[in-house]
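Training component of the fellowship. As part of building independent skills, the fellow (R.M.) carried out the full modelling exercise for a liganded target. The chosen ligand was DQA. The inputs are recorded below so that the supervisory panel can assess the work.
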Amino acid sequence: MHILVIHGPNLNLLGTREPGVYGSQTLAQIDADLSEKATLAGVELKSFQSNHEGALVDRIQAAGSDGCQFIIINPAAYTHTSVAMRDALAAVALPFVEVHLSNIHKRESFRHHSFFSALADGVICGLGAQGYQLALAYALEKLKNPPKRPT
Ligand code: DQA
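Fellow's submitted model of the complex:
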């Protein structure tokens, strides 16, 4: 039983990548913070980053049968293009929160559409790395008190 955090392309460069847009924390720091919080709550947290759409689809598919209970995902640029990742999330039918460090709605119009949002429990954007913490707080609460009826 665990929570899976999935990071899409270029997020491995966090810390040096456009810090004015994405902040100065590295991906390793973000993952370590999440892991620590999850452990304190008695839940295992796994993280996965890839720059490859197929690898991300494969990881989402694996989550359907490896004990994953919840996904926190920042699909990064694939947010705006990937029907394949969206379909994989629909196929495994796991609850997920979509996170973006930047406020995609304040940015270029090509970032305004997400293929994921309509399937997500919720979407957090524009709050920097704190968005992941808020998504984790939601996931932990949901795992503690699963909904009685499908939502
Ligand atoms: C992002 C926003 C995307 O538009 C962009 O392609 C990213 C990161 C974010 O976290 O703000 O790579 O998902």
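The panel noted the following from the submitted structure. The longest helix spans residues 130-144. The chain has one domain: 2-144.
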